[in-house]
Specification:
Elements: E1 4-7, E2 10-13, E3 18-24, E4 32-39, E5 45-52, E6 58-60, E7 68-73, E8 78-83, E9 92-100, E10 108-109, E11 113-118
Parallel strand pairs: 2-11
Antiparallel strand pairs: 1-3, 3-8, 4-5, 4-9, 5-6, 7-8, 9-10, 9-11
């Protein structure tokens, strides 16, 4: 069982930046893909970005390409989501999730962290 701990959310003005962090409560992300998802008020959960821990491959939703960067720190066993040029439509609860390679679905989820972008 992998338990994920997120941090770094908050309130920021339009155009500002935030960095979210995700780490397992124990162990490492070796052999996992780690993703970030978000859910805006009244909307469904959507994919934001993902990174393969072992290979480093990344994927992004079109809506965040060029503004968000997902990265990993092996020494700290932590995945980061660097968010810049934030827009009000980026507001929502951001969730970290993990799936073991080669499983298809994200089985492990964090508790979520609130990101609010004011206009």
């Amino acid at each position: 069982q992998v338990q994920l701990v997120e941090s770094g959310g908050g309130l920021v003005q339009t155009g500002g930046s935030l960095r979210l962090s995700c780490a397992p409560s124990r162990g490492t992300f070796f052999t996992y893909v780690v993703g970030w998802f978000r859910q805006a008020p009244g909307k469904g959960r959507e994919f934001v970005a993902s990174i393969s821990w072992s290979g480093g491959g990344t994927m992004y939703a079109d809506s965040v390409k060029g503004r968000f960067t997902i990265s990993s720190d092996g020494a700290k066993s932590t995945v980061y989501l660097h968010m810049s040029s934030l827009k009000p439509e980026d507001t929502g609860v951001y969730y970290c999730a993990a799936r073991r390679i080669p499983e298809a679905g994200y089985k492990y989820w964090g508790q979520g962290t609130q990101v609010t972008v004011s206009s």
